[in-house]
Structures are given as C-alpha cells and as structure tokens.
C-alpha cells in the first residue's frame, strides 16, 4: 500500500519502524509487533551530511539517535550518520588486498558489519532499459527506523503492473521521488544504520543477476558512486545449497515464496511488493544461515564488492 505524503514534502519517504534483535549469529532476527508507519523528512538544504556524486555535491538532512540495539551480543549505536569523509578514511586504511578476506579475519567483525536485507520492484527484466519503481530495506540489527520503503517514479510507463500491482497512477504523483532524488535518500538511510567506521552488506535474493545490477546501472545513470564500504550478498545460492540436503519428496524450489512456505513463515503483505519481500527474506536468510551453520565471516567471504559485480556484468555482456 502506498501512503500519500504530499502534505509534507516531495522528498519525504516512508520508514516502517520495527523491532528486532541480533543476539548472536544464528538468531539475528526475532519477530515482534507489526511495524508502525513513521514519516520523516529526508531532504534539506541545511544538511551537514553529504555523499559523493560525480562532479556534483548532494546534501540531505540526517538526524542522530541514542537508540541502541543488541547486535551479536553487544549494545552498539544503530543510527549514526557517516559522511563522505569517513568513507574515504575506510579506503585509506585498507588500500591493498582482498576486502572480503581482510574483513572476515577481523576479530571484531560484529562491531563493524551492518547487514541490510533489500528488494526492488522494476518496470521489467532488462537491467539497463528498465527502471526501478520500488525499493525496500531492513537492517537486521533492528531498532528505531530500521526499515525503509518507498515507491519511485521511473519516468517511463509501467507495463507489468500485473506482476507487482504498482500502477502508473501510483508513481506519477508529486510526492513520489525519481531515482536521482531517491539515491541520496537511500544513502542517508543506509549510512544512518552503518556502524562508525564500518561496512555494510546488502542482501538480496537473486541479487547478483538482478537487484544488484539494477542498482549499479541506476547509480551510474544518475551519476552517483556506490560507497566503497558496501558489500553485496546473494541469498539465492545459499538457498540452493541448503535445499540440497532436504528430502527430495519435500524439497522446495529456491524462490523466496517457496522458501517461506518451507519454513512455515507468514508473509506480511503481497508477494512481489518490495517491503513484503524484504520482511520475508529477513526471516528466510537467517534460517538459511542456521541450516548451513554460517558465521558472519563465512558470509563476508561469500559476498561481492561493486568491482566484482561490474566485472561479472561485463563478462556476461561479452558472452
């Protein structure tokens, strides 16, 4: 459901506030009460936080909170804003070698890594020609403002509304941002969840061949750089690996809906809507890590950098 917020600001987006707990690696997410809707202002000319855009300086307003959440056994701030200068320091500190290997070997990994589950809805399947029309995300650490969702005006007709239910009239409204307006809003959300001096892992189901390619192409189209401290994790190979050990008579497909049914999880909302898929994937992802007995280090070693994904995209294009 899309909530009209035109009374407040064109650049306002919807954040769903939920509670969750990351007490240990195998038990990241606990279901609590249904998330409540909260509107926050997402853009302001009086901002002190900024992000890197090629040849363009973009500003958005970001608040700070003293809210804390138990993350892998320790209480840490979950709403700190990290600006572009802090991100640059991360690059300077570790300029050589494999990022995933270095990070996985860090003994204090739980205090550095933020895991954010994400999902996109699009106007079609072509990674370059089609556009993103909805984005949602959830920080598995939980806490205040841990969940994000917004429609996006793609600037092109939506011809596949039968799949996700998102119609042209839903996105062609003054309060719905275009992608070039959404990127700094989404960056502010991600950086508000990032731990000081830390890294972010974006998780998506079938992300390597779909979601992540859309994000990379849209960031490039809008002249934005993906932050260098982002890693990307595709949960689909994890699902396929886990299902290999399941009895063939009950073995489900590796689709998100099939996995939800297999784990007897309740979906909140319609399938193929970004927030509903994110809330389900948050639970499925953690069940998969439990089944496969994976640690945070294991997940980091299976993740991709932006460069890894771009190289894979270029290779597939030549094939």
Automatic annotation (TrEMBL):
Q: Which family does it belong to?
A: Belongs to the exonuclease superfamily. TREX family.
What are the protein's UniProt keywords?
Answer: Exonuclease, Hydrolase, Magnesium, Metal-binding, Nuclease
SUPFAM superfamilies membership: Ribonuclease H-like
User: SMART domains attached here?
Assistant: EXOIII
Which Pfam families did the record assign? RNase_T
Q: Which residues form the Exonuclease domain?
A: 114-294
Q: What is this protein called?
A: Exonuclease domain-containing protein
- One GO CC annotation: mitochondrion
| GO function term, MF aspect, one | nucleic acid binding
Which InterPro entries would you find in this protein's record? Ribonucl_H, RNaseH-like_sf, RNaseH_sf, TREX1/2
Cofactor(s), by name:
Mg(2+)
GO biological process: what's one of them?
A: DNA catabolic process
What Gene3D superfamilies does its record include? Answer: Ribonuclease H-like superfamily/Ribonuclease H (3.30.420.10)
């Amino acid at each position: 459901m899309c909530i009209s917020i035109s009374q407040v600001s064109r650049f306002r987006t919807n954040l769903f506030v939920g509670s969750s707990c990351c007490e240990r690696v195998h038990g990241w997410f606990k279901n609590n009460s249904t998330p409540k809707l909260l509107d926050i202002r997402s853009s302001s000319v009086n901002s002190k936080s900024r992000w890197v855009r090629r040849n363009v300086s973009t500003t958005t307003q970001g608040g700070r909170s003293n809210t804390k959440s138990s993350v892998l056994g320790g209480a840490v701030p979950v709403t700190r804003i990290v600006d572009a200068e802090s991100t640059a320091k991360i690059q300077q500190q570790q300029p050589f070698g494999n990022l995933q290997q270095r990070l996985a070997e860090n003994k204090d990994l739980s205090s550095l890594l933020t895991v954010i589950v994400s999902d996109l809805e699009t106007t079609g399947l072509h990674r370059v020609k089609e556009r993103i029309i909805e984005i949602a995300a959830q920080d598995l650490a939980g806490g205040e403002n841990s969940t994000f969702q917004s429609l996006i005006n793609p600037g092109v007709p939506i011809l596949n509304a039968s799949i996700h239910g998102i119609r042209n009239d839903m996105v062609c409204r003054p309060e719905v941002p275009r992608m070039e307006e959404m990127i700094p809003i989404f960056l502010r959300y991600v950086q508000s969840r990032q731990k000081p001096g830390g890294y972010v892992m974006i998780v998506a189901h079938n992300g390597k061949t779909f979601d992540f390619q859309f994000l990379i192409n849209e960031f490039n189209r809008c002249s934005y750089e993906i932050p260098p401290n982002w890693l990307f994790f595709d949960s689909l190979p994890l699902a396929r690996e886990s299902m290999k050990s399941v009895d063939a008579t009950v073995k489900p497909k590796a689709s998100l809906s099939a996995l939800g049914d297999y784990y007897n999880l309740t979906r909140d909302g319609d399938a193929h809507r970004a927030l509903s898929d994110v809330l389900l994937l948050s639970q499925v992802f953690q069940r998969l890590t439990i089944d496969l007995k994976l640690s945070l280090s294991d997940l980091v070693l299976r993740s991709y950098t932006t460069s890894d994904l771009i190289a894979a995209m270029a290779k597939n294009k030549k094939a």
